[in-house]
Amino acid sequence: MKTFMRRPVAVPYSVYPQREDLPDPNVLPVPGGYYIYSTNHGQVNVPVLFSRDLEHFQVLGDAMPVLPRWARRGLTWAPDVTAASGEYRLYFTARLRRTQYQVIGVATSRSPQGPFTATKRPLVRMLELGGAIDPAVHTSERGTSYLYWKNDGNAAGQQTWLWGAELTQDGLGLASAPVPLLSASETWEHNLVEAPQVIEEGGIYHLLYSCADFGNESYAVGHAWGDHPLGPFTKTCDAPILSSYGEVAGPGHSHAFRTESGEWRLAYHGWEAGRCGYPHGRRSLHLAPLHFGRDGVRVGLEHLV
Prior knowledge:
The chain is mainly β. Helix content is 0%, strand content 47%. It has one domain: Glycosyl hydrolase domain, family 43 (Tachylectin-2, Chain A, 5 Propeller), CATH 2.115.10.20. The chain starts with 12 loop residues before the first strand and ends in a 6-residue tail after the last strand.
């Protein structure tokens, strides 16, 4: 699988009311339903919802009501929750006190609802590269876990890269040096890449990532593939696999997951067309089928029912 078809648009649908802000969604499947986490909203550090059917949602509150001492309140972004060894680990972005930079932390809980308790120090800093944001974890079929993230170079006038590293067995540290995976090289990426996620399907590692400006209609989702969780990764098409369509503008910061029946779904946020950016706009939750085939990865055209 080394050549992929151009995939310009998709026609999914909104599953959470557009008046509700749920940016940078992360979905954790559990027996009997799904937990959904998002970037901070108001006084809630890590909003968490639960759904049995991905159509009806119950707001549960704050998965991490108490931030670690090193984190400044109000800037807790892009959570990623994974289950491992009888506990749950929350990887998150937060502002490092006494700096202007975001860094990545990790917290643990016995329940997916929380409360999660963070470690005393950040997991990834990269202050010399503008900080680190957008963590995501992939656990290979062999049981080895890897962390992926972006150096927040655009916050410091530097280039942005996607990075990966193997995690220690307890998931609380890095077991290998960070590896640069890819940076912006295509016109439609607008010199910025972020929000990486690696998933494994058919013996191939698929890297999904977002690009361009999250605050307008240029935001989109790209795709690359590799034979190893840490690459090298090769971009596979001359356009994003998901970009603005219909009434949805700037779809991105996606998270792929399997449903209870084993089908792949892609969760992502999107602005309402003509209402991009805060304070007037909201990034609502959307879902779409995710298909794998000889022509690569495709975001489903059909509506979910």
